[in-house]
Automatic annotation (TrEMBL):
Protein family per UniProt: Belongs to the DapB family.
Species per Swiss-Prot/TrEMBL record: Streptodolium elevatio
Lineage per the UniProt record: Bacteria, Bacillati, Actinomycetota, Actinomycetes, Kitasatosporales
Residue ranges constituting the Dihydrodipicolinate reductase C-terminal domain according to the UniProt record: 111-247
The reaction(s) this protein catalyses: (S)-2,3,4,5-tetrahydrodipicolinate + NADP(+) + H2O = (2S,4S)-4-hydroxy-2,3,4,5-tetrahydrodipicolinate + NADPH + H(+); (S)-2,3,4,5-tetrahydrodipicolinate + NAD(+) + H2O = (2S,4S)-4-hydroxy-2,3,4,5-tetrahydrodipicolinate + NADH + H(+)
Protein name listed in UniProt: 4-hydroxy-tetrahydrodipicolinate reductase
Length: 253
């Protein structure tokens, strides 16, 4: 059987370098190109790339993705910064390339994906919810893509259950101490030396609190998800949002 030809964009970065190692170590995958910011995207087509793994920067990922889709290359995207508008733009490109698959995964950590699923499942039972994401201080964007997507999922679950807005009597907050709001859900971002990627979802109701927490202590934690995405994306044409769609989670639970 011939190996799947995989390239990594952002190959010199923290995640890109780890992804290169994971692809090289994975059976049935061949790393055919390492692309970073000074390299032409044509390197991807010249190398006969079938799947690109992108860990670059929110400011450049859309250009990389458009190139991939227009050239019939499947994409597994870990880069953050995907707003609903951006997702619609990608759907538009994919409409002209119906055989291409794009996976946008806010988080490749299996535990992180489960944490998001558990939080969405719990959301309808609690009056209050807040998200605290904690990352290394070299991270350029806030809130994290994971926190943003978690907030969207929680907001969807609350809306489906007809829950009102989370209670909050704050009227005086000149310094923004109450954090950001994503789809009405409070989100707080911590940047701290020593951390990698962590998130807590705090759910509160009268007399109780449920805390759902996930920690990535090392970037190797993301790699089984990246390799799974690479193996599955070609068989899933169109846009897939979230690794959970490739995890065969039991729909009854
Ligand atoms: N989905 C997930 O599970 C994870 C996602 N991330 C996300 O991945 C992204 C990258 O994170 P890090 O590796 O920590 O950042 P980083 O800054 O270490 O790496 C980014 C790399 O992209 C390169 N780059 C910049 N512009 C480029 C271009 N036009 N073409 C090719 N390469 C280019 C940079 O030179 C750098 O080597 C961030 O958006 C981060 O939030 C990070 C960890 C896990
Ligand atoms: O920049 C990071 O490190 C991470 N970025 C992703 C995000 O923004 O959610 C995933 C993970 O949290 C690590």
């Amino acid at each position: 059987m011939t190996a799947l030809r995989v390239a990594v964009t952002g190959a010199k970065g923290r995640m890109g370098a780890e992804a290169c190692r994971a692809v090289e170590a994975a059976e049935g995958l061949e790393l055919v190109a390492r692309v970073d910011q000074d390299d032409a995207l044509e390197t991807l087509t010249e190398a006969g790339t079938e799947v690109v793994v992108d860990f670059t920067h929110p400011g450049v990922v859309m250009g990389n993705l458009e190139f991939c889709v227009r050239n019939g290359i499947h994409a597994v995207v870990g880069t953050s910064g995907f707003t609903p508008d951006r997702l619609d733009t990608i759907r538009g490109w994919l409409a002209d390339a119906p055989s291409v698959g794009v996976l946008i995964a806010p988080n490749f950590g299996i535990g992180a994906v489960l944490m998001m699923q558990f939080a969405a499942k719990a959301a309808r039972y609690y009056e209050s919810v807040e998200i605290v994401e904690l990352h290394h201080p070299n991270k350029v964007d806030a809130p994290s893509g994971t926190a943003r997507r978690t907030a969207e999922m929680i907001a969807e679950a609350r809306s489906a259950a007809d829950l009102p807005a989370v209670p909050d009597a704050t009227t005086d907050d000149p310094d923004g101490a109450r954090g950001a709001r994503v789809d009405g859900i409070p989100v707080h971002a911590v940047r701290l030396r020593g951390l990698v990627a962590h998130q807590e979802v705090l759910l509160g109701d009268a007399g109780e609190m449920l805390t759902i927490r996930h920690d990535s202590f090392d970037r190797t934690s993301f790699m089984p998800g990246v390799v799974l995405g690479v193996r599955r994306v070609g068989g899933a044409p169109g846009l897939t949002l979230g690794l959970e769609h490739f995890l065969d989670l039991d729909p009854r639970t």
